[in-house]
Amino acid sequence: MWSGPPTGLPAAICLAIHMTLLLLAALVLSAVTVYDLLQRRHAILRNFPLIGHFRYWLESVGPELRQYIVTSNNEERPFSRDQRRWVYSSSKLQNNYFGFGSTNDMELTPNYLVVKHQMFPARVPRVGDPDFDPQYPLPCLKTLGGFRKRPRAFTPASVVNVSGMSFVALSGAAVEALNRGCQLAGCLHNTGEGGISSHHAHDGDLVWQIGTGYFGCRELDGRFSLARLKDTIASHPQVRAIEIKLSQGAKPGVGGVLPKQKISDEIARIRHIPRDRDCVSPSSHTAFRDVDSLLDFVERIAGETGLPVGIKAAVGELPFWTGLATFIARGDRAVDFVTIDGGEGGTGAGPLVFADRVALPFKLGFSRVQSIFAEHGVPERVVFIGSGKLGFPDAALLAFALGADMINVGREALLSIGCIQALRCHTNHCPTGIATQHPWLTRGLDPDLKCVRLANYVITLRKELHVLSGACGVPHPALVSADQLEILDDRFGSKTVADIFGGRRSQRPEAGTGSSAVKPLALVQFTRAGSPSSLR
Ligand SMILES: Cc1cc2nc3c(=O)[nH]c(=O)nc-3n(C[C@H](O)[C@H](O)[C@H](O)COP(=O)(O)O)c2cc1C
Questions:
Q1: Cys-Cys with 258: which of 53, 146, 279, 295 at CB 3.0–4.6 Å?
Q2: Nearest atom of ligand 1 to the alpha carbon of 346
Q3: Which are the contacts of 341, defined by CB distance < 8 A and separation ≥ 6?
Q4: Ligand 1 centroid from CA 71, angstroms
Q5: 382/418 same-domain check
């Protein structure tokens, strides 16, 4: 802090310095006042020169002020303070318990989820038990690529994985932290549609996402190139699966533009795009145009690479899904996995009306697709992945009960590496260095530290899912049925999740008889996947 002119100077010089500084300040303030009066863009500043700036300043720090001072623990969106605190403390391995009991108004809150526990919970290994594993392993119960017998089919080691968020939407440091964290937690890292960068090359297994821009597998003019796709796969052995992105919940049907000013050498190289023009991702794919040609595309890529290939989409109109299930029922072509993103999902940048109004929220969209696949008798042929604010034990459990085999976490993963929900991803001014390319801001994010945080968060979520499923009498969240969960209204009424959304109903005759009745995990695998599969 400045503490006045150096001591020992004659009083006259001190006075002169003070006067000069005061004069300078007065000049600056007068200049701002004159500018405000003359400018025409902001009526507030024209009418209230100088003091009008406080309004803009308050508006810009509004989210932080509300976060820290005004709102209650459950008020903020997309993630409440309680939710953020749970992620922060879990990621730092601090005490993530809450004291004194629930602060929720259970009986007065509409759509309040309640998990119905068994009187005799299933046993969950604890520290000191011979079968205790501090990684809390929770593998997927299905084999990715199992139904179509892809040569590189595998059983994902974790039901919690990191959702697609591109390098460029995220800083290199953030991508590196996520990738290294995924390696530590033994889960999959989805690249997002921006291609595979050097920041993805830290030994975390990848799901390579391919969007309409075909970054990493395109000709310079933007057309899909199978030869380039094979080159990319050959040079990135850490790619375990490919996800073709049809849409995401926050902005389905919206393409994207990366202005040429933002295309660095690194980005041009990764995406295989020229630097002299804007990079446009169209709103729909050019390599296929309907379900039939999509399945041809999937089979072609899977045939050439041996990898499981799936799709990601948000849910709107249903004929696409009926068509997909009908083709899969024939048996000769299929997607290996379907990621359903809820309309409440996040984005780096998108139009407000799309974020707020386009695409069904997760529970509705996912359950509609599930019932279509069930009607066609094919849900077991596909691995279902859910995303859209599912990175908390209760939300994840509901997703599993609806039929999800795995969940992806996007923004929750960002919270674990330091995101403060400043809601500035679209401005390049993310204060935490996560959703920005600004060198000064990204400098603040230390991947060495943050990768451990991501791993801690994923492992803690797996741990709480273990405990929660145990309370429901089963050893895995994908075995909790939809009639074990209830949704209360605010008038003392309630319905099971199965009654509202469908989903898996309890078929275990032994349900309710306690932990001894729980099937061993290997047997469960056989039952759900149709074929036993070794864990990775
Ligand atoms: C900064 C940011 C970038 C994203 N980039 C992509 C992307 O490249 N591809 C994609 O399919 N989804 C993208 N998403 C959406 C997420 O993958 C995810 O589907 C969505 O945020 C819902 O999950 P969440 O609620 O756990 O965040 C992005 C989300 C964020 C916040």
A1: 279
A2: 21
A3: 247, 248, 249, 250, 312, 313, 314, 359, 362, 387, 388
A4: 26
A5: yes
